[in-house]
Amino acid sequence: MAKSVTGGTKEQSLSWGVFRRFVPYLWPEHEPAIRRRVVLALALVLVAKATTLLMPFAYKAAIDRMAPGLQPGVSLAVALVVAYAAARFGGVLFDNVRNTVFERVGQDATQRLATHVFRHLHDLSLRFHLERRTGAVTKVIERGTKSIDVMLYFLLFNIGPTVIELTAVAVIFWVKFGFGMVAATFLMVATYIVFTRKVTDWRNHLRERMNDLDTGAVAKAVDSLLNYETVKYFSAEDREAARYEKAARAYADAAVRSENSLAWLNIGQSFITNLMMAGAMGYTVWGWSKGRFTPGDVVLVNTLLAQLFRPLDMLGMVYRTIRQGLIDMAAMFELVDQKAEVVDVPSAQPLIVSEGRVKFDNVRFGYEANRPILKGVSFLVPGGKTLAIVGPSGAGKSTIARLLFRFYDVTGGSISIDGQDIGRVQQRTLRENIGIVPQDTVLFNDTIGYNIAYGREGATPEEVEAAARGAAIHDFVAAQPDDYKTQVGERGLKLSGGEKQRVAIARTLLKDPPILILDEATSALDSRTEAEIQRTLRDVSAQRTVIVIAHRLSTIVDADEIVVLNDGRVAERGNHASLLRQNGLYAEMWARQAAEAEMEEA
Ligand SMILES: Nc1ncnc2c1ncn2[C@@H]1O[C@H](COP(=O)(O)OP(=O)(O)OP(=O)(O)O)[C@@H](O)[C@H]1O
């Protein structure tokens, strides 16, 4: 996702845009304690710099005391040397106190930003999540939020103080050694910066490539592990390993090239700074020989420049980190800027369910513009009644459930509940009123108890157990050594399909919604458990509106109405008996399934 940014103005506007966006995290409005820490940290930066600038003067004075021909002043020279050491210590002390004070600010900003992005990701549409690889998205967030902390640190505590120090050194040089020395210093710093920037830009290209390859390798590994079972079915371990190795090797090659390029940067930088050091010290030594400067002045120049070079030594890394940080943060803000596809209209009201009457009126929809899935579907489920939707695979049955949940907006027609268009009510209240037992249940990697209790926030253990009994899973849970604390594994893989389905039923029972969708809810169960659950589901269905999506027609013979969906249209409708009389698609499906059942029994 990381974009390479080229061109000065574009880069500046990008940097400015990103800076503007993270200032509120650094200077949060309702957090006076954080703001106080920022101010204190900045004050400590100034104190530390002042201390470091005093140090070379103490050193110089001590050396001058030792010059031949001067009055011996041993005790003063000792005091000055001690002051020099104290100033050195002071610099380190203040810097570290500053780091301690600022740590909370950086961590706090990172945490707030990460939470903001996380919340936003849940607001984005299903389409976004199906199209993006989860591994790649989490990597973008991880890099983006981490970079805010590092960037703040470098900007405030490296670039800022270096600018202050450079200004102070320039003033001192001007006063003591004349304008030539100032000009030489600025020329050196300018050459240093230009060189560092050029080499770092080149290195950045190498790094970006390395990052892309890293993201690719991680995504491949995640995808491969998520498909663990499929890999085994096809004995494709070697194929998977080869694919991963290829990605990892490409990353390793790019990483070697990127890391080796550092040597060029270090060598060039060292050449520039040491040229300056030699020139400045040579000049002061020459001045001393002419009686214009003292030996202490040589020491002063040496110490001031050595101090100035220390943060400059890190400039390449700082520039690269800030630039990379900007790219990472821009990628993250790009995620934040992703508009949610399904949004509440400004005047959205809460959905109020009275009877639970669900109406699809000439609904048209396609996941992609050029491939319609529903081509004008209409049906009405009166409150408290059960509608079954049947039809061939891929006819659009589950799509109807997704549209009722408003994971997507319809492209034509409308869906309403008790006369309220679902596109005009608050999504949260819409989803609160609908429960679903989906075709493929995915569970949280936590305990069975957690997964059932997910159905209703604040549910008591007794309520969880009652729901589990209702879904015929309690006995299974009770037989586990860890009871409701049994871990279900990633995506619930430690449970069988039927057990997962029963957990899904239990949590929906706990939610107790007025409208219920059962999408092949009992397809993964054996016939004995299915009969047991069917009874429960019938009881549950009695008091609410239910839409049942089913393949096995024997499970829906009692439905008040059955809609046969074919090729995106309602091909037939009626109850079981009337549909059999029509002798159409439904009757054909029924006959086929009856024959299959007979063959199984035989
Ligand atoms: N996210 C998606 N993007 C693009 N096409 C999709 C998406 N989800 C489903 N489809 C397509 O839409 C069509 C209808 O899918 P849907 O899941 O509603 O079928 P279904 O009738 O429930 O089938 P089944 O009985 O096999 O579950 C299918 O052809 C499917 O490939």
UniProtKB/TrEMBL annotation:
Q: Which residues form the ABC transmembrane type-1 domain?
A: 39-324
Domain named ABC transporter: which ranges?
358-592
Q: Where are the transmembrane segments?
A: 38-59, 74-94, 152-175, 181-200
Top-level taxon: Bacteria
Q: How does it sit in the membrane?
A: Multi-pass membrane protein
Q: Which InterPro entries match?
A: AAA+_ATPase, ABC1_TM_dom, ABC1_TM_sf, ABC_transporter-like_ATP-bd, ABC_transporter-like_CS, P-loop_NTPase, Type_1_exporter
Q: What is its main location?
A: membrane
Annotated GO MF terms: ATP binding
Subcellular location field = Cell membrane
Q: Enumerate the UniProt keywords alphabetically.
A: ATP-binding, Membrane, Nucleotide-binding, Transmembrane, Transmembrane helix, Transport
What is this protein's name? Answer: ABCB family ABC transporter ATP-binding protein/permease
